[in-house]
Amino acid sequence: MSLPKVYHRFSLLSLHSPKTLFSSPTLAVKYLPSPPLFRRHSRRFVAGKQFKAETTMASSRFNHLVPVNAVAAEDGGNGTGSNGAADATASVAYDDDMESASVTGYRLPPHEIRDIVDAPPLPALSFSPLRDKILFLKRRSLPPLSDLARPEEKLAGLRIDGKCNTRSRMSFYTGIAIHQLMEDGSLGPEKEIQDLPKGAKINFVTWSNNGQHLAFSVRLDEDDGSSSKLRVWVANVDTGKARPLFESPDIYVNAVFDNFVWVNDSTLLVSTIPLSRGDPPRKPLVPSGPKIQSNEQKNVIQARTYQDLLKDECDEDLFEYYATTQLVLASLDGEMKPFGPPAIYTSMDPSPDQTYIMITSTHRPFSFVVPCGRFPKKVEVWTSNGEFVRELCDLPLAEDIPIAFNSVRKGMRSINWRADKPSTLYWVETQDGGDAKVEVSPRDIIYTQSAAPHENEQPKILHKLDLRYGGISWCDDTLALVYESWYKTRKVRTWVISPESEDVNPRILFDRSSEDVYSDPGSPMSRRTLAGTYVIAKVKKEDDGNTYVLLNGSGATPEGNIPFLDLFDINTGSKERIWQSDKEKYFETVVALMSDQKEGELSINKLKILTSKESKTENTQYYLLSWPEKKTCQITNFPHPYPQLKSLQKEMIRYQRKDGVQLTATLYLPPGYDPSRDGPLPCLVWSYPGEFKSKEAASQVRGSPNEFAGIGSTSPLLWLARGFAVLSGPTIPIIGEGDEEANDRYIEQLVASAEAAVEEVIRRGVADPNKIAVGGHSYGAFMTANLLAHAPHLFCCGIARSGAYNRTLTPFGFQNEERTLWEATNTYVEMSPFMSANKIKKPILLVHGEEDNNPGTLTMQSDRFFNALKGHGALCRLVILPYESHGYGARESIMHVLWETDRWLQKHCVYSSDVKADACKDNAEGTVDSQSKAVAAAGGVQELADLDEDKFHSIRFHG
């Protein structure tokens, strides 16, 4: 059984084994006790008392409406998957007492944390096309490690489960329930989808366009613990009865790329595993020759550190084997026929009128230096009954896309159907060769053409852009909005065009900075057409003949986000605010239009929208809001996901960096805590830096003080249940104004931002200056290591998860740095905490997934950084999580990370600095009793074992 690999070294000499000191169960229980926590009866914080939840948590927070046809990877940070508490196969030790860290195996954090993480999730929701029914898609909690341990093939930037012929680590639904949405906004009784096999794992749930049927895939667990291949099922929404789409049990879905799509209300196009396919190719024991890559043509090929790439000819054959698909047309009445030849089809997109299907595929030659998204790409148009029409393009291998932001692939790209036309295509072609460093006007041209053009019919130029194309919102022949942007300047523009009127000149509607959130006018709301596409919704008022669109905005202000809905006249620019969030107590947002079942303009008096509503202490609920009375009907009533923290305290705070930049953060405090009465707390600062082009933009407030405090499975907010103050997301702006690059002053600005944040929580009296820890994930881990190296006076310890620490290992750019190592050598070196490992004297906990597939954050980054720290005697610990990727998914892994983090915070934050200083002084005088008194005076009755044993023995025997 694989267990976490733990490497541990203390900088001070330890002469006694921890097992010697902690062999007594009594001592083990008292080792590293809980931090000071609130005692409900006395309304005071008392040291050493465990916080016990008074009620069992019912569910985790339902964050938002989930796209039901999306495939969630279980290596994500939120860890949606199966509860694993009862059926986990890895050995797990209960560690509420925080005994010695030398014990091997997976560990469990204290119940205060465990109860929150283990709560079952609420279902995902999906509305029918006619907005008259809601699906409740039931989900499981954290999956067991055995799910992640299943074999997977790492090919061309993908991870493939060969047994299922899907992407590996797919999350799934455990059941589907249907509720009728009543006229008054209430939900009708639950109707379960029937006749599903026991233990069915459900994916890719999609509605037919008329809302009468559902299509989804089903797989089952097999005897060896793996899952079977996927089969397509269909269900009648009215009766709830479900059945397999194919009568033959030998037809399976190939879900490496696209899976299936409704062609019309009674027919699906399914990506299947070819029936003639044999066993996968085997790698020969003796290779046919050396692995050779050549650049004898002297091409300039720069690429970021992509992972899971093809390595040899055997990998090429395996990728082709698993990705090759036979498309099949299948009707609900049982008819089926092959569609085209077998190929590596990556997407299937029917035209709005269901006459044509755009098919995208990839083919050889493959690449060993870039993932499959850059492989040769062919796009074709077929009729919906399987007749080839024409080839749109066959793009070559794209290994040479420059690393500069806004660089793109040469040739046709972003090929799509116009949402407002039956079967008209549009696409974009670059005029700069795809290289953002080339100055040219125009830079992009948008073309449009019918699916089956007449002979000699040429593509029509729709619009020319000087920045990089960013998408189109279609409405009708008279209106479409075109977006363009440029990263270097942060400029974004919105153009108004009239697609079918050549005599109407395009004009700029909005021209602003993407960083200036205060000036964001919002985005146009879309309505669903009868064809199932989405177009800009036009709204009319009864008292005038003007036509308006609805702009849905986040409403960023210096007081926080106040979402809004504006009635906007595109011709005059005038606007009327018809809805706005309650800014005093609640945070409300507009989710979707619910009155879009009919064609034509929407009447303002018949407008109906779906909104969400939450507060600091009330989790998200969903409402129907109807005009003209603006009557609201609550349609969900989800229970609070963690009632033990229901009365937590949340405040959005503002403070200033020494260079004048205004900073913000969200300060969370435990329930019932009063700083004037209870004194300062240990504090956890958790953040992630961001880059800006101006001080003004960096100073703007983002987020809302009234948003519900959502707590994920690895969230720093879990430590509110352990009596910590948590400073979440303090802004760490790295600013490069004008021609200056932000990262050239990265360390200076990083430290200044951290100093300002720490000074603020100390000024407020909520944080003990000697007990402030810092942590982060990915780029936040990089930040953490740099702060411990360059601002050791601020923090007592750090937690760094899945980070990159040596930028010379990512030489062709990283994060938002687009210069190469050879263009900005000093920046790469000075930013790398690896180069400052000799300066890190504060305890640092490193955590990394053994199978991290994120570009730049190879597991080797933590391995080498740990060895550099160890080589300089730093107090450090490295935890490598088997089978985990960039985020952590398995219950055993997540619980162990939480145990490691809690142990680190208890040992090096709660009982650090002032406690240890007093104790060490007493020990130097040879007075063990004085040491006990010092610890007791600090707020907890401890045994001798509670001290940092290395420091204690170093002083006792060498002092």
TrEMBL record:
Signal peptide: none annotated. GO terms for cellular component: chloroplast stroma. It holds the Pfam family Peptidase_S9. SUPFAM superfamilies: alpha/beta-Hydrolases (SSF53474), DPP6 N-terminal domain-like (SSF82171). One of its GO terms (molecular function) is serine-type endopeptidase activity. Keywords: Chloroplast, Hydrolase, Plastid, Protease, Serine protease, Transit peptide. Residues 755-908 form the Peptidase S9 prolyl oligopeptidase catalytic domain. It comes from the Eukaryota. Its main location: plastid. It is found in: Plastid, Chloroplast stroma. One of its GO terms (biological process) is proteolysis. Gene3D superfamilies: alpha/beta hydrolase (3.40.50.1820), TolB, C-terminal domain (2.120.10.30). InterPro entries: 6-blade_b-propeller_TolB-like, AB_hydrolase_fold, Peptidase_S9_cat. PANTHER family: GLUTAMYL ENDOPEPTIDASE, CHLOROPLASTIC-RELATED, SERINE PEPTIDASE S9 FAMILY MEMBER. Belongs to the peptidase S9D family. Serine-type protease active in vitro against the LHCII N-terminal. Cleaves its substrate on the carboxy-side of Glu residues. This is Probable glutamyl endopeptidase, chloroplastic.
